[in-house]
Specification:
Blueprint (H helix, E strand, L loop, with lengths): L2 H4 L3 E2 L4 E2 L19 H7 L1 E7 L4 E6 L3 H13 L3 E12 L5 H9 L3 E2 L20 E8 L1 E2 L10 H4 E2 L2 E3 L4 E2 L5 H4 L6 E2 L5 E4 L5 E11 L15
Antiparallel strand pairs: 1-2, 3-4, 5-14, 6-12, 7-11, 7-14, 8-9, 10-13
Length: 226
């Protein structure tokens, strides 16, 4: 078998063979398989198959499986994003406990360019350069315009379900001018946070910070990278 054949991934019915590269010295007798960066650059290629607002599919050509896996792990763990890091609960009389509600809020993806914010180190005070402030103030009440005998909570009550579009950005410092063309907000408006019934309220302040997925999964910019 030639060295070129040994570098080909083989898909069989029950297994995958030759997933590891062979480009290192003394792996095969009489063959020089030293890794060469220039040769790698000439043989490596990326073929973009499909791009949408939320997905990208591409093929890595001429690359060892270990390098492709390293790229996958970088996408998951080392690309910075902005996410809700601290939740200051002012009032929560709903059925979802403060800790669970804070966790759900933290997983909501935020539309903010991380390149425009500084890393917030332990001990740093919040500023308009390292922190985004969001607020969530929702109260559920009876809809007096609902038809008699109405059983659908969405019609019978006002704010029976709390969604991500009810999170409001509270700009600080120069943020309003800096992000005038792209106001900071949750990426999706229809993420269900919790449900309420008349008399129940939620009031909290949310602080977003810059982070990476290796610190917490909420900072990972990809849902899956495979």
């Amino acid at each position: 078998m030639s060295l070129a054949d040994r570098n080909r991934v083989v898909l069989l019915e029950d297994r995958v063979e030759n997933v590891s590269g062979a480009e290192f010295p003394l792996n095969f007798g009489g063959q020089d398989a030293v890794f060469n960066l220039e040769d790698f650059e000439n043989s490596f290629d990326i073929n973009i198959v499909c791009v949408t607002e939320t997905d990208i599919e591409f093929d890595l050509i001429g690359v060892d499986a270990s390098i492709a896996n390293a790229l996958r792990r970088i996408l998951i763990a080392e690309v910075p994003t902005v996410a809700i890091e601290k939740v200051f609960m002012v009032n929560n009389t709903g059925v979802v406990q403060d800790e669970v509600l804070a966790h759900r809020l933290g997983l909501i993806p935020i539309n903010a360019d991380p390149a425009k914010f500084l890393w917030k180190q332990p001990g740093d005070i919040p500023t308009d350069q390292n922190t985004i402030v969001l607020k969530l103030d929702v109260a559920c009440e009876v809809n007096r315009d609902a038809a008699p005998g109405e059983t659908d909570p969405k019609k019978k009550y006002i704010n029976s379900a709390v969604y991500s579009n009810q999170i409001v950005w509270d700009p600080k410092g120069e943020q309003e001018r800096q992000f005038a063309d792209s106001p900071i907000r949750p990426i999706h408006d229809d993420i269900l946070i919790t449900k309420l019934r008349p008399g129940q309220v939620i009031s909290c302040e949310l602080h977003c910070e810059k982070g990476v997925g290796k610190d917490h999964a909420k900072f990972s910019p990809v849902a899956t990278a495979s």
